[in-house]
Write a structure and sequence with these properties.
single chain, 337 residues, alpha+beta, eight-stranded antiparallel sheet, four-stranded antiparallel sheet, 24% helix, 27% strand
């Protein structure tokens, strides 16, 4: 059974990648005498106890019918995302995504087919999916971000609200704080229990350019990095510490952005509140992008380190900016390479 579960977990990752509007995946492991239901969502992997298919054929048939259902909800698909299929090619030709606007009414965005959704590769965890859509009223392109946070983490929307109006920090248009919860998915009598409950958050954001990795000149690189640090300072003045400075969380604004800063800080998933530049949260190497983390954060994961991890402060983020700069200087052959 263990080998089958490991193989199935790999296949589940592929399903989440190719069907980004999946909330969970269910499958069966069948032997000549037993069956087990495997349920995987962003919280964890659950297994039913082995069920003897000869002694209890009715349950076996119900399980087969359940995972063969024509109901998208039963199969774990988020029905707020809908696709149209070209009858000639059998491929997705267009799609829509429904969420809630500031006035509490439903807003339906057309999903663009020229940009594939971005999906984080893991099956369990934040499971971030970024959709590219078009605003139904203005016609402007937007980014719609779905992610799964644990209950003990503050929602990103709290920090995005604080960031409103800061030039150089991602701007939020709409948000839906609780689209789904993993505790409502897991079948009864599954084991192990006790995985953290994760809540699905949907945020509609302004769309920006490419990562700073695609800078085309030294002047553009230095300007973008300087502007990102200045935006980080403005964010800190509102008691928000970013905590996940990385290459792909600094975006270029693009040629049509108008006056103002040339880059944008995005992704406040891991942000924390900070007083006078210092947070109450200790360094955690398991959160953030390890390649750009400060020495202090990295040392916190060293089992031979007898010193307690210090609280995070703005210097840890500035150190991350420095490592991004080093990566760009020493690791870039040409824009994007």
């Amino acid at each position: 059974f263990l080998g089958s579960v490991l193989n199935l977990t790999f296949l589940v990752r592929q399903i989440f990648s190719h069907q980004p509007n999946r909330n969970f995946v269910r499958s069966l492991i069948v032997t000549e005498s037993h069956v087990r239901l495997v349920h995987v969502d962003r919280g964890g992997t659950y297994l039913t106890p082995p069920i003897n298919i000869h002694d209890d054929p009715h349950t076996f048939i119900r399980l087969v019918l359940g995972i063969s259902s024509t109901s998208e909800d039963v199969l774990g698909i988020d029905t707020s995302v809908q696709w149209s299929v070209d009858p000639k090619t059998g491929r997705k030709s267009s799609g829509t995504l429904k969420t809630v606007g500031d006035n509490g009414k439903a807003v339906v965005f057309d999903l663009t087919t020229d940009n594939f959704p971005f999906c984080r590769p893991e099956a369990v965890g934040r499971g971030t999916v970024c959709w590219y859509g078009t605003h139904p009223d203005t016609g402007k392109r937007v980014l719609i971000k779905d992610s799964w946070r644990t209950e003990d983490n503050a929602p990103e929307t709290l920090f995005l609200e604080k960031a409103r109006g800061i030039d150089g920090v991602v701007q939020m248009l709409f948000h839906e704080d609780s689209c789904a919860e993993t505790k409502r998915f897991a079948p009864e009598h599954c084991e192990p229990r006790g995985f953290p409950n994760r809540i699905k958050l949907r945020v509609v954001l302004e769309l920006y350019g490419q990562s700073i990795w695609f800078c085309e000149s030294r002047h553009q690189l230095v300007s973008a990095l300087r502007d990102a640090i200045a935006a980080h300072h403005d964010l800190l003045n509102r008691q928000v510490l970013h905590r996940d400075i990385s290459m792909y969380n600094i975006l270029l604004k693009g040629p049509d952005s108008g006056p103002g800063r040339s880059s944008v800080l995005i992704d406040l998933d891991l942000a924390v509140w900070a007083q006078r530049g210092v947070s109450n949260t200790k360094a955690d190497v398991n959160k953030g992008t390890r390649m750009y983390q400060s020495i202090s954060a990295l040392c916190s994961s060293d089992p031979t380190n007898d010193h307690p991890s210090p609280p995070l402060d703005y210097l840890d983020d500035l150190e991350s900016f420095f490592y991004v700069f080093c990566h760009l200087i020493f690791g870039s052959g040409r824009p994007g390479v």
